[in-house]
Amino acid sequence: MANMLHLQKLSVGTDGIDDLSAWQDQRRAQTPDGLPRHVTRMWPKRADELLAGGSIFWVIKGTILCRQRILRLDAHDRGDGIRRCAIVLEPGLVPVAPTRRRAFQGWRYLAPGDAPPDLTAARQGEDALPAELSAALAEIGVL
């Protein structure tokens, strides 16, 4: 079995985890079988490692706030003949320890040892902090 690997991706235009969840609930953000997906121009060269249990870690306003397990990679064509990659995701967003990230384009690979841990079950019931506050607290090492 291949080594596992994750992706990190900017969630452009979202203000928080609830906003990303609402976007993924829209039909246009789903596969024909109803699973959330993210369509990207490039096909990951390390697909086998991603499919060995990897997740996509969502960067919202400069901070990784949540993740979703990657289920599969589907070919996707928007009718223009250009082959794209639909990263098909497990439904539901798993909150993680807020971790600052600089802006980048596209997506980046993320080694499992560098991935932020999931929030404990006790903390998952808490109201989410605003993304800006989470980012500021992560910046000074409080979160």
Which tags fit this structure?
single chain; 143 residues; alpha+beta; seven-stranded mixed beta sheet; 4 helices; 17% helix; 34% strand; globular; UCP032025
Notes on the structure:
17% of the residues lie in helices and 34% in strands. It has 143 residues and is an alpha+beta fold. It has one domain (6-139). Strand 4 (63-77) and strand 5 (83-89) form a beta hairpin. The longest helix has 9 residues, at 131-139. It starts with 5 loop residues before the first strand and ends with a helix. The mean pLDDT is 87.
Spell out the blueprint of helices and strands.
Elements: E1 6-10, H1 17-24, E2 37-40, H2 47-50, E3 55-60, E4 63-77, E5 83-89, E6 94-100, E7 107-110, H3 121-124, H4 131-139
Parallel strand pairs: 1-3
Antiparallel strand pairs: 1-7, 2-5, 3-4, 4-5, 4-6
